[in-house]
Specification:
The chain is α+β, with helices and mostly antiparallel strands. The chain is built from 4 helices and 4 strands; from the N terminus they run H-E-E-E-H-H-E-H. The chain has one domain: Nucleotidyltransferase, domain 5 (2-Layer Sandwich).
């Protein structure tokens, strides 16, 4: 198996477990240059909140969009937007990415900003 198929297999396994919780989910996607986060509804058909390093309000205070500091800003931003949309509890869907580095930084920042997962 190559790296991408291993990640997708982990993602599928994780999502099948999250589906049983019947709670909104905070899903992330990480690329080499950016990090993206969305809060999806229970059925997965609508996006309740989103934040990424591509957005001007997040990008303006950053020197680099591909480091841990950028992930922290995205985590704070997604938590604020989710709480404004009325969502306080989510399940963390890391999309098969390993829980360290930027993924961990985003999750910790979202928890500190008020999201529970």
């Amino acid at each position: 198996m190559d790296k991408k198929s291993s990640r997708l297999k982990r993602a599928l396994r994780l999502r099948s477990k999250i589906k049983k919780f019947e709670v909104n989910r905070l899903t992330i996607h990480r690329t080499s240059q950016h990090i993206y986060a969305q809060v999806l509804s229970v059925d997965g058909k609508s996006t309740l909140a989103s934040a990424s390093t591509v957005q001007a309000d997040v990008k303006s205070g950053l020197k680099n969009t591909s480091n841990v500091n950028a992930a922290i800003e995205v985590g704070k931003s997604i938590a604020q937007k989710a709480i404004a949309a009325g969502v306080t509890e989510v399940a963390f869907d890391r999309s098969g990415f390993k829980y360290h580095g930027r993924v961990k930084a985003l999750a910790d920042a979202a928890r500190e900003a008020g999201l529970k997962f």
